[in-house]
Design a protein that fits this description.
The structure is a homodimer of 305-residue chains. With 305 residues, chain A is of the alpha/beta class. Chain A has 2 domains: 122 residues, HAD superfamily/HAD-like (Rossmann fold); 119 residues, Rossmann fold (3-Layer(aba) Sandwich), CATH 3.40.50. In chain A, helix 4 packs parallel to helix 5 and helix 6 packs across helix 7. Chain A is elongated, with a radius of gyration of 20 Å. The interface between A and B is large, with 46 and 46 residues. Chains A, B: It catalyses: 2-phosphoglycolate + H2O = glycolate + phosphate. Chains A, B: This is Phosphoglycolate phosphatase. Chains A, B: One of its GO terms (cellular component) is chloroplast. Chains A, B: It is an enzyme of class 3 (hydrolase).
């Protein structure tokens, strides 16, 4: 495989990252956008070489941005997680799909008097609150059960104007009924998905169902399709570009998923680097049925250049 | 609207059932196939006119069959439910999707030494056991939670060769992870759906998420499509025809759902009657976007003819 960089486009085969083309990539990029699960960490374990790579990039003046579809944490909580792992990352450098959901509602001028029902975890509720919206559901509905008795009505708030669905490891029938009733019965109620990742590395040893599982469940009961705010939707990139004035051609998206990370980068016109530390294997990448080809792929970070 | 019966086909507009065309339908049909939820009952309440209609049909020598996509009960449990509501129906007259799942495994000679993981309720497990298969999961996994700690592996049975997904009002992340791992990791593991109904009348006052919700969740996490054994799949009809030697042109499918009941009847060449006592409204039936037209529709049963 050649070591030269070519602007390979979506269909050309990916190049293995070599010391030489890594150098070329490094020189041509001003900002590196990193996915987190399967790229920076798996569960609570850092992936080998990450701290050194991030430190090297910062020391060379590269802008670092962390773009994660995992909605269980807010930006503040992600910043704490980075700190607990010995890496200093500010909230401003983090773009999580929990934040994207709140920013989407802000962008469309979602009425402040309406409420937002959450099938998801703490991160979404915290970001909604920070953006001035009233969230319902989430963790506090995690232990609720349903009463299916004659004449017993399942009560839900008629002022819910949006249902946000993300990864929810406390998913239950109560929340599914609540969200379904709001979307089906409250006129104009929005159905917003943080993302549709099938699975993710929530622990270092295994993959687990992702937000795609909960989002599909709500599609199944409502027969509606959601507005997706996380990767590969361009919403997060548009927001990011408003903040950082860097041309997307000077950005490189680094991720472990073809259908979210790499597609997100390609949709925006960024360079793309697939890391094989997460959900994508080399055989998936090279399978003829795969039509998403990153510019480069690597099984390990180069700690020095 | 004309009172005459025409073999209207899928696209011709439905006729409102009148005393006259009800008489003609009655004379030309030997067996009536009834859906249950939204047709016979809503929750634990019989729908008005049902006992008298069933009694009248039996007294005239019509064969009655009950074909339900609701997998929460076994045939034995459905027979008990009918009895508790004052209607005598034998197990042989009941075709539930729980039974269909077990019969499907029998039909394909599913190996007896393999196990079946169930995301669903008691009915599926009981039918699997009656058919000689080993079921896992179901209600006993309803209170299990997941441990997402470093190095902690989610254990699952490598001998699971099929995952059956049906309506599960105790759905949780444990079951979703269990079923997902089996389908993704156990070579050749089947993904079987009892049905894909979006919602159903599990209580008289409201609709609730149906099996389509849980099935979609597993599609979302596995990125695979299931084998469907309930309506509108023809599997249940093929099985029913083996048992009752009646031509499908002499059968009438009576149901409340266009995309399951009516489609199921039409796929098999049966006459079809939509009742408006369940999930389908007259406006849904007559909406230009609806392409499934039953031969007849009615908002109430004719207790006498």
């Amino acid at each position: 495989m050649s070591g030269q960089i070519e602007n390979s486009g979506a269909k050309a085969a990916s190049q293995l990252l070599s010391p030489q083309n890594a150098r070329d990539l490094f020189d041509s990029v001003d900002a590196f956008l990193f996915d987190c699960d399967g790229v920076i960490w798996k569960g609570d374990k850092l992936i080998d070489g990450v701290p050194q790579t991030l430190e090297m990039l910062r020391s060379k003046g590269k802008k670092l941005v962390f773009v994660t579809n995992n909605s269980t944490k807010s930006r503040r909580q992600y910043s704490e997680k980075f700190r607990s792992l010995g890496i200093a990352v500010s909230e401003d450098e983090i773009f999580s799909s929990s934040f994207a959901a709140a920013m989407y509602l802000k962008a469309i001028d979602f009425p402040r008097e309406k409420k937002v029902y959450v099938i998801g975890e703490e991160g979404i509720l915290e970001e909604l609150e920070l953006a001035g919206f009233t969230g319902l559901g989430g963790p506090e509905d995690g232990k609720k059960t349903v009463q299916m008795k004659p004449n017993c009505l399942f009560e839900y708030d008629k002022s819910v104007g949006a249902v946000v669905v993300g990864l929810d490891t406390y998913i239950n029938y109560y929340k599914l009924q609540y969200g379904t009733l709001c979307i089906r019965e409250n006129p104009g109620c929005l159905f917003i998905a943080t993302n549709r990742d099938a699975v993710g590395h929530w622990t270092d040893s295994q993959e687990w169902p992702g937000a795609g599982c909960m989002v599909a469940a709500v599609c199944g009961s409502t027969e509606k399709e959601p507005i997706v705010v996380g990767k590969p939707s361009t919403f997060m990139m548009d927001f990011l570009l408003q903040k950082f004035h860097i041309s997307t051609s000077k950005m490189c998206m680094v991720g472990d998923r073809l259908d979210t990370d790499i597609l997100f980068g390609q949709n925006a016109g960024c360079r793309t680097l697939l890391v094989l530390s997460g959900v994508t294997t080399i055989s998936t990448l090279q399978d003829p049925s795969n039509h998403i080809q990153p510019d480069h792929y690597t099984s390990k970070f180069f700690k020095k250049l």
